[in-house]
Specification:
mainly beta, Lipocalin
Length: about 170
């Protein structure tokens, strides 16, 4: 297996929540971490470990009122990082880059086991892209859905992840 490092500028996390007024969209870069991968069966195969981190303060919607509410609910001064760590991994179809992963997601000081399907593909010489999505319920992480005036946010949040990784430099 070869160690790859996440490109913080090219990698993205998107979160989409619904509210009683309009959808709430969050997009952020600044993801950090690493993963292992190797060529196999005509494609790329992931290996363990896979480790992803994000500073909680980077989670922003672009709306100042909503961002203050996000910061307050996420308690960014107390819970500085969101951490994802893969524990189990299975190549579903190495030729197409499809993988199944199960691991821990730590958000707001609460760790939950989640699973998801991921796709891995080669972008250019030595650069790989890993993408996947999963819906979570913020209440599972000790978070109460925000309310602003009559504006209500629903607890389900769709997360979409795109990691761009390159060979680690020693």
């Amino acid at each position: 297996m070869i160690r790859y490092t996440i490109d913080s500028k090219r990698s993205r996390l998107w979160a989409l929540a619904r509210s009683s007024l309009h959808p709430i969209r969050v997009e952020t870069d600044g993801l950090e971490g690493y993963l292992d991968a190797e060529s196999a069966d005509g494609g790329m195969r992931l290996g363990l470990p896979i480790h992803v981190e994000l500073e909680t303060a980077l989670i922003r919607s672009g709306n100042a009122l909503l961002d203050r509410e996000l910061e307050r609910h996420l308690e960014v001064r107390k819970y500085h990082r969101v951490i994802g760590e893969a524990r189990e991994l299975q190549a579903v179809d190495p030729a197409s880059g499809r993988h199944w992963v199960r691991g821990d997601l730590t958000l707001h000081g609460v760790t939950r086991v989640l699973d998801a399907h991921l796709s891995l593909r080669t972008l250019s010489d030595g650069v790989l892209e890993l993408a996947g999505e999963r819906t979570i319920d913020m209440r599972d992480f000790g978070l109460t859905p925000p309310k602003l005036f009559i504006f209500r946010v629903y607890p389900e949040v769709q997360l979409r992840l795109r990691l761009v990784v390159s060979l680690s430099r020693s």
